[in-house]
Amino acid sequence: MTLPAIAALRERWPEAQLEVLGYPHITGLAQGYADATRSIEARPLAGFFVPNGILEPTWIDYFAKFSVVISYLFDPDEIFANNVKLCGVKQYISGSPKPSDLPAARHYCRPLEALAIYVDEPVPRVFPNDSDRAVATKFLARLGRERIAAIHPGSGGEPKNWPVEKFAALARWLVDEMDFQLVVVRGEADEVAANQLLGELAPRPVTQATGLKLVELAGVLERCALFVGNDSGVTHLAAAVGTPTVSLFGPASSPIWEPRGAQVRVVRFGVNDVSHVRQAIEQVWR
Question: Which residues, given as ranges, of the chain have pLDDT below 50?
Answer without folding.
Answer: none
